Amino acid sequence: VYGARPLKRVIQRRLQDPLAMAVLDGKFHEGDTVLVDAEKGELVLRKAGAKEHAGVAS
Fold first, then answer.
1. CA distance 47 to 35
2. What angle do CA 10, 30, 5 make, to 5 degrees?
3. Which long-range contacts (CB under 8 A, 24 or more apart) does 18-26 make?
4. Is 47 exposed, middle or buried (0-12, 13-18, 19+ CB in 10 A)?
5. Domains of the chain, with CATH numbers?
6. What angle do CA 47, 43, 17 make, to 5 degrees?
7. 43 has a pLDDT exceeding 70
8. Using alpha carbons only, what angle is made at residue 13 by residues 1 and 20, rounded to the nearest 5 degrees?
9. Residue 26: CA atoms inside 13 Å, Cβ hemisphere, count?
10. Which pTM value belongs to this model?
């Protein structure tokens, strides 16, 4: 199924919800840059290091 609503639900379930839980768990803080990678078919969230942060577009 294609369309804006199904896409929004996938983004919310696979990215926004895990990111919100990570913030609530204290894994990320205000001002952190969070990188999203795909590993083995899953999205992985991690905090950018200083070197990675310098190369990230905002």
1. 6
2. 15
3. 18/43, 18/45, 19/45
4. middle
5. 4-54 (1.10.8.60)
6. 80
7. yes
8. 155
9. 0
10. 0.77
Residue pLDDT, tens place only, 17-26? 999 999 999 9
Q: Which two tokens stand for residue 22?
A: 């990570």
Distances in Å between the Cα of 18 and the Cα atoms of 42, 48, 54, 57 are: 11, 17, 25, 22
Partnered with residue 42 across adjacent β-strands are 39
Rounded to the nearest integer, the mean pLDDT of the chain is 90
